[in-house]
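Why should sequence recovery work at all? Because a backbone constrains its sequence more than one might expect. Tight turns favour small or flexible residues, buried strands favour hydrophobic ones, and helices have their own preferences. The token representation captures these environments compactly. In the example below, the structure is given first.
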């Protein structure tokens, strides 16, 4: 039961981050490595504010705003200075490593015994007795659903439709007179705000901020998105955001299973990399090659009528 609760807790926390990665990876087709810096930044903000006895809910809101600012800066570097998306993310990721260290003041900041969204007078008064051990997973579930439904709502607005349109075809959006760069910046702001919120909640759940907690975060987010969208792409009643949440939980379950089977915890990053590679290979679209119409004529002895029929069949396949 403890293992299952741990998988659900961490899976849903990372699902919030996965929703942010979904915006950049699936919608904008933007290789945003800023995630590896914005996640620990959110954790640092949460840990510092909580260590000073500031309301933990307020720390999440502050982390959200700071994350949006980080996303805007990444977008400005890419759009205004014409830096490639991958390099823009690397620049911000590198800069943010120093930023979250400066914010925290140290490489490790524990917040044990402090009031968090999981441990305060109100929460402890609601979750008593047998329900107490489920309070963390319930609160994380509520936070994840809030993030998911807010993103679903945004995607149904005019701005959300424009965001999806930019990811599908920039040329068409440009022809309508809209500023594609501005839409990208908005998408990056929303993405990184979700990532920092995830980091802030993670720090409160673990009761500690650590400078290394952002390493490989983007891989976890990508794995969550790919697992969810690949496994449930034919399930029409599930929204894509729901698929990402489930994908994140499944990913964490796979890692937990590998550790439960006896693999050393030191192999965790290797397990993550191998699992991600397997996911990518499985999710690759297998394209079958078809012969070109001109190649049909290379077969001597083929009757003209049959050649024509094969050519038409090939054209139909291409269409």
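From this structural description, the recovered sequence reads:
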């Amino acid at each position: 039961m403890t293992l299952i609760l741990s998988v659900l807790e961490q899976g849903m926390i990372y699902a919030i981050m996965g929703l942010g990665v979904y915006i950049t990876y699936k919608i904008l087709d933007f290789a945003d490595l800023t995630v590896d810096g914005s996640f620990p930044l959110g954790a640092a903000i949460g840990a510092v504010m909580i260590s000073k006895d500031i309301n933990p809910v307020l720390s999440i809101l502050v982390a959200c705003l700071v994350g949006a600012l980080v996303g805007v800066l990444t977008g400005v570097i890419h759009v205004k200075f014409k830096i490639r998306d991958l390099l823009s993310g690397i620049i911000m990721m590198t800069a943010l490593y120093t930023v979250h260290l400066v914010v925290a003041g140290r490489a490790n900041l524990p917040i044990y015994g402090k009031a968090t969204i999981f441990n305060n007078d109100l929460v402890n008064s609601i979750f008593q007795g047998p329900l107490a051990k489920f309070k963390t997973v319930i609160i994380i579930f509520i936070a994840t659903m809030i993030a998911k439904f807010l993103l679903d709502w945004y995607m149904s607005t005019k701005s959300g439709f424009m965001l999806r349109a930019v990811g599908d075809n920039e040329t068409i959006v440009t022809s309508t007179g809209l500023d594609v760069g501005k839409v990208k910046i908005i998408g990056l702001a929303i993405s990184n705000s979700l990532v920092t919120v995830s980091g802030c909640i993670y720090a409160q759940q673990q009761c500690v901020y650590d400078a290394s907690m952002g390493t490989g975060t983007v891989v976890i987010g990508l794995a969550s998105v790919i697992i969810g969208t690949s496994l449930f792409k034919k399930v029409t009643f599930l929204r894509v955001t729901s698929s990402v949440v489930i994908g994140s939980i499944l990913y964490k379950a796979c890692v937990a299973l590998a550790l439960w089977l006896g693999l050393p915890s030191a192999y965790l990053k290797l397990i993550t990399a191998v699992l991600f590679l397997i996911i990518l290979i499985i999710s690759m679209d297998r394209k079958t090659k078809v012969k070109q119409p001109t190649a049909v004529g290379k077969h001597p002895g083929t009757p003209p009528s049959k050649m024509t029929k094969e050519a038409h069949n090939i054209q139909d396949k291409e269409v």
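A few observations help interpret the result. The beta strands are 108-110, 208-210.
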